[in-house]
């Protein structure tokens, strides 16, 4: 379950400032696009949920990660308004940044590996927040969609080449937090892979690329390219 602003812990006295890294996750073949991610490596300096939520809201990325233990890969994930037990592009990006073989999320342990230009995580579809997977007849229909009004979280998709597993997708979070369209969403790709029971090569947003592959016992791999945009940015 997601948790609303403030969570269950009392607010701290931390002033909403500090440094963080900025990554782009699920970049296209040319290294462009991808979904921006903020990573606070020294998460211990913001212990209260309310402080972390305020910082994530100030940054305004679709997700921000706080690293609680870099050696164990323990992380805490936030949107601008919600705390998440798991999310795809934060796990892919943070595992690449920390160079760890496993991440500890509130949903469970996420295995990670790096294979040349791609970074991969292994997770379960039931860890992903609820999404409406809405299929369209053609990729052109998906391209032509307007941003829907706030409400349900919609993952709009269509086959570009069904035989090859190539998908065109766009993601509309349906939240009133300034994120009208999510450029690349690993959790939604996880759900679509689970529903279709096959490996996928997804082009999402303006040109981001997400690769997936179902594995044994309900585990699914999600992978993509990660690029460092800025190290030690100041808030």
From TrEMBL:
Any Pfam family matching the protein: PhzC-PhzF
Protein name in the entry: PhzF family phenazine biosynthesis protein
Superkingdom, natural source: Bacteria
Gene3D superfamilies: Diaminopimelate Epimerase, Chain A, domain 1
